[in-house]
Amino acid sequence: MKAVQFPAVGEVRMVELPDPTPGPGEVLVRVAAAGICHTDVHILHGNFPARYPVVPGHEFAGTVVAAGDGVDPSWVGRRVAVDPNVPCGTCPACKENRQNLCPNLEAYGVTLNGGFAELATVKLTNAYLIGDLPFKVAAMAEPLACVVHGLNLLRLEPASHALIFGAGPMGLLLMQALKHAGAARATLVDLHHRRLEIGLELGADATLVDADGLQELAPEHGRFDLVADATGVPAVVERLPRYVRDGGKILYFGVCPPDAEIRLKPYDVYRRDLQIIGSFSLRQTLAPALRLLASGAVRVEPLISHTFQLDEFEHWIQQVGKAETMKLQAVLE
């Protein structure tokens, strides 16, 4: 089969690999759509823990074409999306239902071969039925599942006013999910006008190209109930407390560099009764993400700016984060 491979840090190749065979409890998926995530960029450059060589791709969907021992053969022919996380199931984190914090966590596209290939083997427990959802939509279930996990941690208060820095794919998924969960208003800040236009089309109430003027858009108390970062830019993250109301919540959702540091006044957090929440990956949230997609509550088609063939991967991973790109997907059928 054809596959993209990261042989080592900083290397990308198109390779021919033997067709994988599903083991016990696994299914073989013919990949139909796979999205590039900024995490794939981090893995390529060695800024995210991975195991090389690896076939990247943790956002993918396709059709089951073979079943391993112990799997009902009726799964063959079913259309599925994949939860990439493979926790150990036995550690304290797993027993507390916090599988995303498993110290032995494996993941398709990170430590196990993933979706940027014609075929991929996955555990049956990681395959979720998608019904008649288009594959390109179903492949967005994984990033949306990360958003759902963040919302579960937030416990959003009704009629909250939310401020989101970053109107890339993750920021716009977060904005839509917040509105669906009951946020009264959502304001987006981003440097790129086109991204903000898409945000307005998807339900944002206000947009700004920088933080100037935020006081005018905030509720009467001058600050927001929730401020979230979806940029992963440390300088942006450092400024979040100035925009949140006393007693409000701050969500660290974007992925900052592992060695980044910011200045934070602990007295400010203490005196203002602030809640700072970190959200990593997904946690048993692919099924609710698929329900949001199926219901139309969250729209993802406007976020997919470019599709490409598998052998064009090396070009397109270099386009991640540019002003003219949003979600980039390989389409294999």
TrEMBL record:
Cofactor: Zn(2+)
Keyword set includes Metal-binding: yes
Keyword Glycosyltransferase: no
Domain annotation Alcohol dehydrogenase-like N-terminal: ranges: 23-128
Annotated InterPro entries: ADH-like_C (IPR013149), ADH-like_N (IPR013154), ADH_Zn_CS (IPR002328), GroES-like_sf (IPR011032), NAD(P)-bd_dom_sf (IPR036291), Zn_alcohol_dh (IPR050129)
Entry's family note: Belongs to the zinc-containing alcohol dehydrogenase family.
Protein name: Zinc-binding dehydrogenase
Origin species: Limnochorda pilosa
